[in-house]
Amino acid sequence: MKTSGTYTFKSSGSLDAYGYLYKTKFDSSSVLQNRISADDDGAGNGQFQLTEYLDSKFEYILVFTTYYQRTQGKFKVTASGPDKLSLI
Question: Hey, is 19 helix, strand or coil?
Answer without folding.
Answer: strand
